[in-house]
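Box 4.2: Ligand-aware structure prediction
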Amino acid sequence: MVTRKSAAEIELMRRAGRIVAEVLALVESELKPGVTTGQLDALAERHIRRSGAVPSFKGYLGNRRYGGGPLAFPGSVCVSIDDEVVHGIPGERVIRQGQIVSIDAGAIWHGWHGDAARTFIVGEAGPQAARLVTTTRLALMAGIQAAVPGGYLEEIGGAVEDVARAEGFDIVRQFVGHGIGTDMHEEPQVPNYRTGHRGQKLQPGICLAIEPMLTVGRADVETRPDGWTVVTRDRSLAAHFEHTIAVTDHGPEILTTV
Ligand code: MG
């Protein structure tokens, strides 16, 4: 069931979203060669808890649709490097110059979720990596712009797909965006491509996490033996951007912003 959130509920999601955006900005400021993914995770968790929120990923149990193994996710953020697409587990791994690093963060504020991700370039990356990261960000923004009241879900995926295809990048299909509210993953699923069905009508109060994942090579993915980390089968680079948005009378509003 797709639920429509009230103005008061969206305000709570805005608070959750602001904390998530602050986490991403904080991690960006500390994302340098030599730092470990576990150090970034600790920074993120501290900020979330000091803000009075709860990290939504920590202890999250995987499921068939949104991935994950039999073990609860141990971190407060996902850190996915280079050919890792999503759900990288933070730990001892050391960040290196030239890597592209996706940070995905989630926070719960008074029972309401915010969920966002950005891919950062550590120092300087090659032109193809830079173009992948830029294109994935622009694909997300195009998807958000399509989230207008009276529109349909298919238009979001179509907008993302057009931006990705124009630059020759492939789109991960195994993982998709989602409705969001009192649960991190609610109905509807939000594909990053056209399905051939117009899908859910977009009405004010519908809140979505839109999250394109694009790859330089083929977008076939597999999960590492850790049960979580999703990588491209051909080990090509992947990028991932995500915002939580609300469909409002005036158009889409990004909730995961400061
Ligand atoms: Mg998400």
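In the box above, the bound molecule is magnesium ion. The chain has one domain: 7-254.
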